[in-house]
Amino acid sequence: MNTLFQDLRYALRTLRKRVGFTTVAVTMLALGIGINTAVFSVINSALFKGWPLVQRNDRIVQITTNRGSVNFPDFEDWRSQARSFQGIALIRGDHRTLSDGAGTPETHYTTAVSPNMFRLLGVKPVLGRDFSTSDEQPGAPAVIILRYEVWANRFGANPGIIGKTVRVDGVPSTVIGVMPKGFSFAYPWRQDLWAPLVPPAGARSRETPWGGPYAFARLTDGATIESARAEMETIGRRLASAYPGTNHDVAPVVKGFDDWFIGEGARTLYKGMWAAVGFVLLIVCANVANLLIAHATGRSREIAIRLALGAGRWRIIRQFLIESMTLAMLGGVAGWCIAVIAVRIYALAQLNDDVLRFTIDHRAAGYLIAITACTGILTGVVSATRVTELNINSASRNFSRQHLSSLFVSAEMVLAIVLLAGAGVITRSFLNVYRADMGVDKQKVLMMALGMVPDRYPTPESWIPFFRELTSRLEAIPGVESAGVGAVPTEDVRRVAYELPEVPHGKEQRPAVAEIVASTGYFRTLGARIVNGRGFADSDRASSLPVAIVNQQFAERNWAGQNPVGKRLRPLPGTPGKEPRPWLTVVGVVSNIIQNDRTRQAFEPLVYVPFEQHPGGGEFVFVRTGVAPDSVAAAVRRQVYNLDPNLPVSNLMPLSERLDRNYGFERNIATLFLFFSAVALLLASVGLYASISHSVSIRVQEIGVRVAIGATSRDILTLIFRQGILPVGTGLTIGLAASFALNGVLKALLVGVSPADPIAMIAASALLVLCAALGCWIPARRATRVDPVVALKYQ
Q1: Which residue(s) pair with 421 in the sheet?
Q2: Of 79, 218, 503, 597, whose Cβ has the fewest other Cβ atoms within 10 Å?
């Protein structure tokens, strides 16, 4: 033990004497360990911890169908027949308006759930009670449970809220509970209110398409996702045989926690990010090992003497291990500070993520300790093994470390080019999405969503006078050019099957086409063009001829070479036996707008119907301004209040901000990949510089001799550059080959770019070569200034 403390004190004295070496090594270690811990903390929150407060997230599965939603009778059959689950709950989410007479109405995402939901999750309310089976009975008094944050912000954390009556979409509802702070479920939507799922009268009929977007269940002990999936497929076939009229093409789909919670694409990106910082840490290890070997060069005589005096090989190795572990511990402490700051910055950047809690916990602390120890041991073993190969005779000379150093440099270059190429294709993919033509002019457009309270607006037809008056008032605001009602570009809208009189199809062959309800000023407000016919007019009302406008894609697909104006089409009912809607006459063709496509790459056929003939759908209002959109936001809100002071306004923001938020995750990931690749490039360049610089320092006599016998500055530059560029070329060749393979993992996530994108590869290679050349040039210039007289006297 005393010997160990002696070695530790000696290591501290040695590192304190070489302040420059210690500072550089600790800084590199802190950077590598810090960003690795930060990324692990993010991945830990997204992939491992899951929903806060939920017990054993990994045992939760999602159950939906190939149709995209779950019908209530199917849900009941699953619940009674499945044996792989402790229980199954159904979820239906919707935006609803909360009002209580104490403040302005607010729109909250409200989830109707089976009464056993919270018990399956293992979470209890902190105030009040859970749902009971009596709450889901038809005719039962309406009750709700509040999210903790809603209770604190709206009701001042008043414990007396239990038993109070509020109005949800105008329906008096009793508050029976408050969930714990930070609890949310059904990611990615933040849940603000929970209500019991009460099936309407006709919901138990299989012919009635009523149910939830999905169900969730908890696996029983011993059950696996694979066994649960096999059982649900068996139940699905059994129901298809028993009910061929409604279930012949219905197949249950069971998703594990990872696929459900975070999604396959996001999981791949997170793991790719983890691999990227792992590469950065390996570069750090290579650099520190190189530095330690260079540091040991100056101590070669000391080590040789210690060996000659009888010091054992293990004693020398232990001394270097203690020095490297000391450096690693110092780097780990500094890395912890870097990780804390980085995680906080990342958490603040997640503007639309209110579910994940990006924090550093005991797992992250354990991870930091583990990689710190591994880094210290790895760099110590490599350097100690190399140094103890020396003997007394070799120590009398400046021993060569060029081959090992070149190997380290080549490895760093391989890792750097892989990161650069990966960051290049991810960035180009993001830019392809971000810069894509959406068919609209998103600049200087303000948008908002209105929650139409059912007790004041019981039918969609009752919305018409309100929106007619609202758009008129909005257009009268100074600085406002036009206003309209419709759908948010790129976001999902419902699809409806259409039939054309001139194109007979079987029912199963009729394609579903996105249908959008739009007001008169919608196209003008978004900057879309009417390329044929006319737009919607004030005369297109319920009593007039049913009309529609199609986009160019729809017209080209169905009436290529013909004039679409005057053609007819008819939407088909989604429910069997229901009468189809009237035939619609096409009065115009509008330019293409991206819809139902987050990648913004494809224009799909769209049908627009006038709001006054088909009121309903998402109540998004758009306002085009001649000034900054934010400058008229208060006036827009005031006009809504003047018309109806009880109507909640949400998502009041510039359209450009809304569209940018939809890609916040991809933007953050692309930014992080660029940052990691920049760090890797910097570290690799520093490693190359250190290697060449040290090589120059131990070859001073050789360079002096070369100069003395007539070598020119160009000859010396060529000599040094050849030594540096050779490992760079080797690393570049191997790294590009590795990039082709590794980038293939990202293929499914890339938009409009190949994993082997030549632009990304060429740019990455050029950047690496440029930085490598700079790393060689600085010591090479110093070598050309060697005085042969001084050099021949060196050492």
Answers
A1: none
A2: 503
